[in-house]
Structure formats: C-alpha cells, structure tokens
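Q: Joint fold for the lines below.
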Amino acid sequence: MRQVDGWLRPLGVAGWVALVGLVVFVVLAVGAALGLWAAGFEGAVAREHLSPGPAAWLGTDALGRDLLARTLQGARVSLVVGGGAALGLVTIGAALGAFAGLRGGWIDRLLAGLCDALAAIPPVVTLLGAALLLRPGLATAIAAIALTQWHGVFRSVRAEALRMRSADHDRAARAMGAGTWHRVRWHLLPRLRPLLVTSLVLCFVYAVKVEALLAYFGASAQSLPSWGRLLAETGSELARGIWWPTLAASVPLASLVLCAQVLADRLGDGEPRG
Amino acid sequence: MWLRRLLVAAATLALVSALVFLVVDALADRAALDLGRGASPEALAARRHLLGLDRPIGTRLFEHVASAMSFELGESARLGVPVRVLIWRAALPTLAYALPGFLLATLVSLLGGVVAARRRGLVDRVLLAVATLLMSCSSVIVVVLGQYLLAHRMRWFPVLGWPLTGDPRPLLGFVLLPALLWALIQLGPDLRHYRAIFVRELAAPHVEGMRARGLAERRVVLRVLRGAAAPVLARVSARLPQLVLGSVVVEHVFNVPGLGALLVAAVRDADLAVVQGVAFCLAAATIAGQALCDLLVPVLDPRTRAREAGR
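A: Joint structure:
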C-alpha cells in the first residue's frame, strides 16, 4: 500500500495519461454539444457506407451520416450518463451510509436490510426493467442507475462511519457536544475523501458500461446517438464487411472506460480489483 | 447458526419481493397495459376490478409476497403460461453455455491470478494490462467483435442459433462460441480480483514465517491457496446469479432462448409477472449463494471459526 500524503494519492505516469485522456473526452464532448466542430460535416449527408477517407474521416453510416460527428455526440451521452449517475449514486450511498453508521440502532438495521435486498437483484433486471417501464431517455437512465445501485458505496461508507464511532477522537468530540453535522463535516468527510474519489471514478466506469448496454437494448437516450445504439445498429453490417461504424463506436467506448479504470486503479489502494 | 442464517436469507428474499412489487406497482399500470392507449376510464376501472387492482395495496402486497415465497410466480400476461414453467424452460439453455463459460473463466483467472501474484514483474504487468483492457471492453463490444472475428471471418463456429430438437450433438457447436465469449467477459474482472486476493495472502506474515523455516516454495503456495479459499469462495458465490442469468447480450446476439432473452422479451412486452418472476428467482439465487458462502467459510477457514467463537 502506498503512503497517503495530501488528500489524494500520487497518480504516476499511467494515472496522468488516463486523466489527460478523460479531459480530452470531456473537451470533445463539450465541443460537440456546443456545435464547435459541427461546421463541415455535421448533417452533411454523403453517400451511404462511405469508407474512412478525406471526405469523412471515420466514414459514413447506412444513412450517409458522418460517423465522426455521431461518435462525438455519443461521447456526450456516455459522459453525461456516466458523470450524472456516478455523482447521484455516490451522493445517495454516502449520505445514507453516513446516516446509518452514525445513527446506529433500528434505522441502521433497516437501511442495511434494504441495501442487502437491493444488492440481491441483479442490476440487469432492475435497470432494463426501470428504463423500459418508464419512458426511456437520458434522465431515466441516470435515475435508474443512481437509485438502484448505491448499495456498494453505502456499505463502505457505513463501515467507515461505524469504525469512526468507536474511535477515541469521535468519542471525545461527542463528549464535547459536537452535533451530527459537525462530526460528518470535520471528522467523517476527511476520512472518506480517498474512498469517495475512487468510488466516484469507479461508478463512472460502471455507469458508462451500463449505459452502453441499455442503449444497445434501446433503453437509453432516444434523440441523441450513443455508442451502444451505434453498436446495435451496426452489428449486422459488420457481417457484410462494413467494419468502420462498429469501430467508430467501440474504440472510443473502450478507451473512455480504460482511461477511467486506470485512473481509479491509481487512486485506489494500489491493488487493482475487479 | 444455520437456522439463523436461513431465517435472515428468507427475510431478505421477502423484502426483495416486496420491493420489486412496490416499484412495479408504482411504475406500471397493469390494466392500462392490457387495454392499450385510449381505453375509456370505465373500461380501465372494470379491468382493474377484474384483476383485483382496486383492493388496498397492503392486502395485495401481502398476497404477492406470500405467493412468491412459495414460488407461485403467477402467469405471463402475453403467453398465458405460468411464469415458473417459462423460467424453468429458459434456465436450461442458459446453463448450457453459462456453466462451461463460468468454469473456464474461473479456472483461467485463478491460474492467472496465482501466476501474476507469484511472479510480480513483467508477467504480472502483462497479465494485469490484458485483464484491464478486457474489462474496459463493454460486453457488447466483446460479443459483437467476437462473433464477427471467430464466426464470420474465421468460420470456426456457427454464427448464431440454437437447435430446437433435443439432440445434444449439434448443441455442442452452438454452445462453444457463446460459452467462450461469456468466459472472456468475466475473465478481466475475475483475474484482477483473484490476483489481488493472492497478493494479499502472499504478503501475510505467516508466509514469510514459512519461507524462513525453509518450506519448499510449492508447499508455501499450496498453503496460501488454502488460506485464500474463503475470499475466492466469496467471489465465486457472488458470481452465482450471473451463472443463472447468463449474459443478456450473449443471448440476444446468438439467439439463445435463455433467461436473459426471456427477460428482455418480457421487458419489451411489459409482461410484468415475468419480469417480477425473473427478478425474484435471481434474487433467490444471489441470497442462496451468500448464505452458502457464509456457512462454508468457517468450514474452510479455521481463523473465522475462532473469530465466531470469540464474539
């Protein structure tokens, strides 16, 4: 285990490369959202199934749309769902975990039971079910992930809160009359910081992968092209030797996840896990 | 202790079933789904009465949980077949490819984990990089590219399909590629996980003690394996629901009539009873796996037995 100095662990070369990769993805996606690089190829319909070349850098799809533009739009969907779901999930899990761990008693037991029950339902069932029973879309995908998958973060935060409750410094703080809010802000949060940052990145990885799966089954964003949907649309074209649409979706998806995963590994305790 | 664990498991399962019922009840209106859009309010009310949806929610919740706990999962609204029969029929095709895939992935990743943790150096780095790369490829990518490369390009396997007759010989050809890809999907995270377990075990003080006393390296490794049995078992039991559900993507792409395909079809047709039934059965598998793991760990690892007794 590496030494913790400051509030984050040193990233190392691989970690910095991964971080820069993530920033590049964010810049590309924001640019695509603002329409910065739209001029030139967006909406310009060329011949269908044009292979990659100077006219269309990544080729065109079955309807003659430029694949580079669609891929950049897909980055937007993945980043929004990944970021939004990770933020929501970690917030819910951490808040409930801190609450349960510091309160103890029957509230703690009830929340832990609820967490066990939620964890017992495989995510595919909950997510596909929720995303399709409701109207499929960006917000639905984010809400479905954030509301049903918080049990992992809950467990680790609760364990940390329980550990803190039996620590001397917390006992002293309580004896001096510190309120729950004070204990959370000044005692629990500093302890949790590395855990929360790592969880945030790991949940981002998870949410991006899940979004691709949901989109593959048509249960994610409807009006925007996403990588999962691109993969679903182009699966049959691949058999006819039209490889570039599949590549245009899978290479960025895998690299985004890889960047975030490497970053999470560097932020974690030094032993990468699955 | 056995009885207590069993009771906890049953209570969790009942909670799952109540949770699923409440969520589905809040999100979907069975009567409106049956009659379609544009049904008159009177027709909807009559349909609700017929389905018993106008009774108080507490009564319905109790009835649902009670019947689910005795594995009475209701009837599919689209097919008119009991959900239990549907799930039973779909479980066999899923097991046919998921079990070999699971065994392959577990064996390879355990082996890779031991080798990586023992060698630490270049071998470790390469294995770790491959595992991380595999893990970063969404299952959709693995399945789509795997089907293209191995079935379309190489023609080593049939592209997709599932034999309808009971003859097991053609089955083998159709099972191989889904099993292989399913193993590949699990391999990345599993290898990383097992490697982390063995790294931690090998760094334990008693391993240094064994080496200091001049125990042969092979025997040290054997003992470390025994010591790692509990966390490995925990991981295997956590994989149990995936063994039952298989992969929705694999089944979708290869047309396997398994549980994942059943789930996707049921969700698409808004066949609520089937979705609830699949969720319930998988939760039962998960909870059973956890309970089994909790009961087996003290048998395998004396340290936890001592901890139990000391409590």
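Q: Anything notable?
A: The radius of gyration of chain B is 24 Å. Chain B is about 80% helix and 0% strand.
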